[in-house]
Design goal:
By secondary structure, this protein is an alpha/beta fold. The protein contains 10 helices and 8 strands.
Amino acid sequence: MFEACVRTASFTRAAVELGVTPSAVSLRIRDLEAEMGVALFHRAGPRVSATAAGRTLAARLGEALALVRSAVEACVTEPPVLRLSAPPTFAARWLAPRLAGYRDLPDAMSIQLDVSAEVRASHAFDLAIRTGFGDWPGLDAERLMPIDATPMLSPALLAGAPLERPEQLAALPLLRHEDWPRWFAEAGIVSPELRFVSTNYPTQELDASAALEGEGVGLLSPTLFAPLVAQGALVRPFAHVIEGPAWHYLLSHPGETRSGILRFAKWLRGASRPGEP
């Protein structure tokens, strides 16, 4: 229960995952803190975050739970299905088009793909792809590729007038994204007046859909949405791309030894870094 609370940063989400009530989780954590004599969480409304002591405990418990999981799985030679979890836009735009190449391999495993933006319970997946900064307690995190972004828009939004300078973008409606000021700054435009559309879309996939409909200029990943540019559905007017600080990470369980899981992880590394040896 403690491990789930640290991983989800929420007593409520931990309760849903474990099939108990939030009050039961809160009570058990309070009893645990009283028994140990140390605060394990900072509480701020519905969200919680682990204290330094809590993070240390969670990291060590993650190692212990991984050993338990490894002991159980040692009784099974290979899982019949590789359980892979990935966020929605990454799964649809990058992963799915490449899985056909993996399935053509002679030793390919069947894939059970779980599409979710949140890290599942450790027993619910074999490998996971997540976006962030590498801080997932109890899991090994390996960088795959940096988060990148550049302006993209529908040709209809240009109305026949090509964009020649980055500052011209400021005259167009922009789809909301926290990194617009950073993109303009790196492109040499300081503090332009920006005009945003009223709707705030929660995912890049929805941003891309809005951009396709001509609603505004999206700050989208060229890694994920390059096919739309190649098809002419979207225009990428400028070469400048911002990268990081967040990355797409491959998450695995510490001490993973199953050959099928390791082969898929190796394939995924190669697919994400095609230019590397």
